[in-house]
Amino acid sequence: MSERLTIEVSDPMREEGIIIKALRKRYGKGDTAVDALKGVAMQVAPGEVVGLIGPSGSGKSTLLKCLGAVIEPSSGQMSLGDQVIYDGGWRIRDLRALRRDKIGFVFQAPYLIPFLDVTDNVALLPMLAGRPNAEARKAALNLLDALDVAHRAKAMPAQLSGGEQQRVAIARALVNRPPVILADEPTAPLDSARALSVIRILNQMAAQYQTAIIVVTHDEKIIPTFKRIYHIRDGLTREEVGEGKIPD
Amino acid sequence: MISLAGRDILHAWGKFVFTGLGLGLLIGVTLSMAGIYRGMIEDAKVLLDNSGADLWVVQQDTLGPYAESSSIYDDLYRGIRGLDGVACAANVTYLTMQVRKADSDVRAMVVGIVPGGPGEPGHPPFLVAGRHITRSHYEAVADAATGFKLGDRIQIRRNHYSVVGITRRMVSSSGDPMVFIPLKDAQEAQFLKDNDAIVRQRRRTAANPDFNRPEVPGMLDAVIASQSSNPYVNAVLVQLAPGRDAQSVAETIQRWKRLKVYTRPEMEQILVGKLIATSARQIGVFLVILSLVSAAIIAFIIYTLTMGKIREIAVLKLIGTKNRTIAGMILQQAVSLGIIGFVVGKIVATFWAPHFPKYVLLLPGDAARGFAVVVVICVLASLMAIRLALKVDPAEAIGG
Q: Is residue A2 part of a domain?
């Protein structure tokens, strides 16, 4: 297991990042039981982007679902930001609010809501959190501007290119300023240039908002861009130092 | 918070509008069925109102003259006129039949009335064209719904009549328009045989030695004459003197004339409660079936729409949308679909109602009740889709 990274951050709430200790997940019971995670350990510091790589069936998605608080681990410990969220049982009563406020999701496909325009796709999360519409839209527009898609603010998702859709999806993941972003194959449908652009944006946003980002990927093009990579196989993780080079 | 349902509807407005149009046609049929039922009741009341009667005197042990056949002598009205409390009494006959004009014919209720007595019971209370019947034979006043015009020559049985007046909203309890003709003609029409039958009957009578006695000349002619005439009417319509109690006058007539007398509420009960009861039940069953079909269609549409949004719902749940927000979205869409359908249904029902052959009465109260039922059906129909949406696992948004 890796040593915890120490990064200077201005927000004390973000000092912890993601810490996972001895996380296990077992599906089924008795003879048919399958151990998808057999004691995973990970640590991602605020502002850091790490890669999570592994073959199919290695436990990547299970780990992501546990981190995303959509399935309950069998044992172990998970902390997001300054909060222990799992320690042999959920320590958070409202997992929905946890996902809304503390975790950002970026999917393989952007999965934007097709009947909302770009601004409202991003503003939906702060609105769900109870922020006034105008304030939520302002925050969304600021992020869209930062991601260079503000000019498509009024467009519908179907009118965007794949790269634009993915940037909007990143804006949606960031808009509530979560301490953690989980990105599941975010570059899979993109060509090399766009894939690297997405990784550049994720690194930039991680640094700017001190967000800990885990990128699950199979994409050979982007693996060299991570400074740290977790390999997962048979439910166990192994940490490796990456090149950390993002080509211009 | 923005309205997710509203945005979805605006985004896929074509789908919603066209689905709403289809649903609206179904709701229009449902509203029309209710209108037909109301129209039947209204027709029954109009029949009673337009007769101008306070009491209906009919044959004993019958529910005549509308619900059952009734036959009483045509001179009884004189004795009834003389009773205390009676202001006016008039004979009337009713016969539903095909009235011919040239090569076509119209289903109509032929009403036999005493000519020259506008304002008397049985007469049409108003005309929209022409004049009342003044002659004792071969004149007619027709309801506009028959399609007859002033001066038209119409045929009832073997006789031809000139249309001298046109009235409106004079219909039988089953909605057939009325044609008024002089009482004598109507009495003849009820029992008039064809020429061959008359010849055969006369021959049979002449062959009967009891009627054709050589020592009693003129007897055969008298018997044949009695066979050829009809001294019966279906009812006597009675108007009460001002301030007289209908029930007590009815009891007096029943006691002294040994006839059955119905008051207005009793006659209304017969018409609404007995005559159109089967039709009303029929329409009621139709309404229930149409409501179930509407519910099934709405449920199917909303379920299908929700099925098409499973991934979006999973994403919404994953990013922290509350179940009640998602349920609210589906519910609002179902109710919106119902509202679109209801508005379309109300409009089409209003436009096609006048084209129904029978009177269709669309009451605002029925529309309000219909709207409430549509909303309830939409809410119930959305439950299946809501259940589906709530069962969607947010993990479906994450691959693997």
A: no
Cis peptide before B214 (omega within 30 of 0): no
CATH of the domain at A138: 3.40.50.300
Average pLDDT for B21-32: 91
Q: Does pLDDT of A8 surpass 80? A: no
A41 within some domain: yes
Q: Which residues of A touch B8 (CB under 8 A)?
A: 115
Letter string b/e over residues A78-111, b meaning 16 or more CB atoms within 10 A of that residue's CB: bbbbeeebbeeeeebeebbebbbbbbbbbbbbbb
**Cβ contact (<8 Å) for B318 and A68?**
yes
Label residue B400 by pLDDT band (50, 70, 90). Answer: low
Q: How many domains does chain A have?
A: 1
Q: Chain B: nearest CA to A101, how far in angstroms?
A: 8
A42: in domain: yes
Judge: A61–B398 Cβ closer than 8 Å, yes or no: yes
Range of the structural domain that residue A107 is part of: 17-241
Is the pLDDT assigned to residue B26 strictly greater than 50? yes
Mean pLDDT of B113-142: 89
CA dihedral B5, B7, B11, B16 (to 10 degrees): 30
Q: Is residue A12 part of a domain?
A: no
Whether the per-residue pLDDT at A2 is higher than 70: the answer is no
pTM of the model: 0.74
